[in-house]
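Lab notebook page, bench 4
Experiment: in silico fold of construct C2
Operator: M.H.
Input chain length: 222 residues
Purpose: comparison with the prior construct
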Amino acid sequence: MLYLHALRVNYLQHTGVPLGHAYYFPQTVGGSSMKKKFNNRTIVEAGMMLALAVILGQFIKLFSLPFGGSVTAGSMIPLLLIGMMRGPVVGITVGICYGLIDYTFGGWMVSLVQWLLDYPVAFGTLGLAGLVWNPVRKGLVNSRWGQSLLAVAAAVVGIGGRFISHFLAGVWFFGEHAPEGVPAWKYSLGYQASYLVPEIIFSAFILFFLAHPLMNFMKKRA
């Protein structure tokens, strides 16, 4: 580190850039931006949302399917919310953490690729809700209806990404469980839809009404 610092100072001296600026470049490229995303408040909020998602997803299930998947009491909502509140990077990170926790509660692993698709990737995609919500978080959408509709879109995109990931895992690794004469893709499509469509509908419904209060909370918090 001292060697790199000496090189940077030597370069700045020869280019005429004030030495005081030597400390800004590395921070803006990597360290500072990541610290900003994962400051103390973000870590606390992420931990709370993760804990709430685990409680709703693992202990309050309406019904479960034999090869994984269940309809829950809105367990995806906290994971969608953290992405909407803190952006896609934080949302994806928290989603991946949830996927790892979900696997420990009796998950399936028939291959590494299947495990990645069904757990870290599937739940990590919930953070994509933060991309959809970006215009609201940046203050570009101020109407109540606009915020509510984007919240619905965030739920569809986030859980839709999870749907696609589970669907691919089902086609590639669980096709043998399909009834005779039923293609693997149809079996996987129906299997995933049986529990994720209700999750999408319920999450979108709740987020539709939470969108405006969420935006007000974010403004007061800032």
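Observations: Residues 167 and 189 are 6 Å apart (CA to CA). The chain has a mean pLDDT of 85.
Next step: discuss at group meeting.
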